[in-house]
């Protein structure tokens, strides 16, 4: 198998228990879930993001130790902005204020609250969007541009899923492909169950043919029990291996834990 990228979505330090070998990986990505622009009571804050991952476990020392244990693998840390399911949707009051607030608050998370975490980038993963495609594209593209131009981040990714890909995420990608380094497609959110590895490969090929370049496209998966009805672990494992070997896919990602059961 060619050297690939592996991304783990996590809200704690469970990445410390992941087996990582430079024989198979060239890069390991830690995506912290989630930074949200809602307060502790669930009230929207219009782009003022705050971290909701476990700040007692996701520490500078934990990440430093992980990097020290794997010196031959490039480790990058992402802040994942967005939501899982229908709660905390993307829903700005207006474009300009949301862009200003998001740029400043994400910068503050990276440079003030957690500068020692060595954050490399952001990932945009909204399962639910309560805005028009034009608003979504304008807001996210401008925030990514602001953060990159300001040297706050060096990489950015988007994580589309079936119901939102054509109307929201793909127009965003077409608007600013140079700003988006990776596309992590969330196969656990397919509208119809993926029942066999061949179907997964067919759907990946369709994404490459119609939407995103293969050199940027991850195959994403959730190991949370409630997602198994759409895509089981064995189907993803076998299909993911085919994507990496037969299609020379760039990488895969996994959500390991049930985030909302730990709130």
Write the layout of secondary structure elements.
Elements: E1 4-10, E2 25-36, E3 50-51, H1 60-69, E4 74-83, H2 95-113, E5 121-126, H3 133-149, E6 155-158, H4 162-175, E7 182-186, H5 197-210, E8 217-222, H6 233-245, E9 251-255
Parallel strand pairs: 1-2, 1-9, 2-4, 4-5, 5-6, 6-7, 7-8, 8-9
Antiparallel strand pairs: 2-3
Helix pairs in contact: 2-3, 3-4, 5-6
Q: Your description of this structure?
A:
Helix content is 33%, strand content 22%. It has a single domain (7-192, 252-262), classed as Glycosidases (TIM Barrel, Alpha-Beta Barrel), CATH 3.20.20. With 263 residues, it is of the alpha/beta class. It has an 8-stranded parallel barrel. The model is unreliable at 258-263 (pLDDT under 50). The longest helix has 19 residues, at 95-113. It starts with a strand and ends in an 8-residue tail after the last strand. It has helices at 60-69, 95-113, 133-149, 162-175, 197-210, 233-245, and strands at 4-10, 25-36, 50-51, 74-83, 121-126, 155-158, 182-186, 217-222, 251-255. The relative contact order is 0.15.
Overall helicity: 25-40%
Tally of domains? 1
Structural class: alpha/beta
Mean pLDDT: 91
Count every helix, treating DSSP H or I runs of 4 or more residues as helices. 6
**Side-by-side strand order of the widest sheet:** 1-2-4-5-6-7-8-9
CATH class designation = Alpha Beta
How far from one another are the termini? 38 Å
Number of strands: 9
Element pattern in H and E: EEEHEHEHEHEHEHE
Q: How much is the radius of gyration in Å?
A: 17 Å
Instruction: Please describe the biggest sheet, giving its number of strands, its sense, and whether it closes into a barrel.
Output: 8 strands, parallel, barrel
> Within the CATH hierarchy, at the fold level, what is the topology?
TIM Barrel
């Amino acid at each position: 198998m060619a050297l690939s990228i592996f991304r783990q979505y996590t809200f704690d330090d469970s990445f410390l228990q992941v087996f990582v070998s430079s024989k198979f990986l060239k890069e390991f990505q830690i995506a912290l879930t989630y930074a949200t622009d809602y307060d502790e009571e669930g009230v929207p804050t219009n782009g003022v993001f705050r971290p909701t991952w476990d700040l007692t476990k996701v520490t500078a020392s934990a990440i430093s130790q992980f990097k020290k244990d794997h010196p031959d693998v490039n480790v990058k840390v992402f802040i994942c902005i967005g939501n899982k399911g229908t709660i905390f949707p993307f829903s700005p009051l207006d474009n300009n204020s949301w862009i200003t607030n998001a740029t400043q608050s994400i910068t503050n998370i990276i440079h003030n609250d957690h500068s020692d975490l060595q954050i490399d980038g952001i990932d945009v993963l909204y399962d639910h969007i309560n805005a028009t495609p034009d608003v979504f594209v304008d807001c996210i593209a401008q925030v990514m541009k602001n953060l990159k131009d300001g040297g706050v981040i060096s990489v950015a990714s988007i994580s589309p899923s079936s119901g939102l890909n054509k109307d929201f995420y793909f127009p965003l990608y077409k608007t600013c492909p140079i700003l988006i380094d990776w596309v992590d497609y969330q196969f656990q959110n397919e509208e119809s169950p993926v029942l066999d590895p061949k179907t997964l490969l067919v759907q990946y090929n369709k994404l490459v043919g119609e939407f995103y370049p293969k050199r940027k496209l991850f195959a994403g998966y959730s190991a949370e029990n409630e997602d198994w009805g759409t895509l089981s672990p064995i189907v993803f494992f076998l299909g993911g291996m085919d994507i990496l070997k037969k299609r020379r896919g760039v990488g895969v990602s996994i959500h390991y834990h049930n985030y909302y059961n730990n709130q």
